[in-house]
Amino acid sequence: MKDLELYEEIIQLTRLGQPFAVATVTANSGSSPRKAGAKMLVRRRHDAGTVGGGRIELETVRAALAALNGGEPTTLPFVLTEEHGFACGGAMSVYVEPHVSVPHLVMFGAGHVGKAVAGLAKRCGFRVTVVDERPECTGREELPFADEIICCSVKEAFGRLRLGNGSYVVIATPGHVHDFDAVRGALGTQAGFIGLLGSRRKRQALLTTLTEDGFAQEQRDRVVTPVGLEIGAETPEEIAVSIMGQLVRERRNHEAARGGAVAGGRAIAPDGDMQATAAP
Length: 280
Prior knowledge:
This protein is of the alpha/beta class. It folds into 2 domains: about 5-100, no CATH class; about 105-255, NAD(P)-binding Rossmann-like Domain (Rossmann fold, 3-Layer(aba) Sandwich). The protein is built from 8 helices and 11 strands. It has a 6-stranded parallel beta sheet, sandwiched between helices. Helix 3 (about 110-125) crosses helix 8 (about 235-255). The radius of gyration is 23 Å and the shape is elongated. About 35% of the residues are buried. Mean pLDDT is about 85; it is low at about 260-265 and about 270-280.
């Protein structure tokens, strides 16, 4: 694979939010099979490019897959002896850099709050999908920051979405019926976070509805409502900060659980009973 093709593949995987690792030869001496700058793209199922073949490549692929699981880069030193299938001598260093899945936000509702949340999420490094059935709210000029816009009903949208553990769902549709439909749909996926905008009274109505619908306690506990940190937010922009603060905390706590300190990881003290409850 030519370098240009490899870079194009990297761009495509990044846009899709799929994990991959890039292995780069950073130094070489003697009779090494590849020179500094040679690259290989490693995905969970197949690879592209090469760093030299043989045992070097086998160990590089293993290290890349381990880096994808752990999230940490690593450098592999190789002395090119017969053990590695090279009798002419030499040495190589290969740097393995993982690129884990980009977090995916699905924003149900393109009202004032939804737009503010989606725009801030994009600036925070999330891949953003916005769902709303109102054509006047879902034009590209209205949502220039969205990676994907789905203009259809809430129920229809779930047939077009692929939500896994790295997906965050925030719900702020124009009405309770659509909100609750979105919650039901999200509970039928593997989404890692499900948040509903609203008041504590709305929370109780939702939990009552989910109980009557037969959802178990374990499922009901997956729904975070009211969504957002308690910072006394009132305007759509402030509410977006509150919600994104919570999503960033969830994301970083998940990363920290794999080991290592996280910048900005100090807990935020609660500030009373105020909570974002504005209508979307």
